Amino acid sequence: MLGKVGFLFGLCVGLSGCGNAFEGSYRAMEGVIGPLVAIDVKGNKATVVKVDPFRKLVLSEQTWEAVSNGEKLLLTDRKGKTFAFNRSVDERGLECLNCGLGTGMPSSWQQFDPNN
Hints:
Elements: H1 2-16, E1 24-29, E2 36-42, E3 45-52, E4 57-69, E5 72-76, E6 82-87, E7 94-96, E8 108-112
Antiparallel strand pairs: 1-2, 1-8, 2-3, 3-4, 4-5, 5-6, 6-7, 7-8
């Protein structure tokens, strides 16, 4: 019996993983002509980069706090404003719940591989 309990405990620990369920890179276009915004989530940090897609110029780069709260990803900027994200319908991208016009952050985000 004790062996089964140990096995189940080990299995649970192994399956739970150590990382944030939202880890990865996401991108979105702010408005019609930009800028392009990219978020790279690793653990409890998120690097947020805004790029001018036409001039290929980095406009800003900041590190924000990232917290995975069950079904939501909460990103808090340097000024203390928190943006809440859910998984999009395709289960890969993100939908921002409090982003959009006037917030400086797009609503819909696509997952991407920054190495490609």
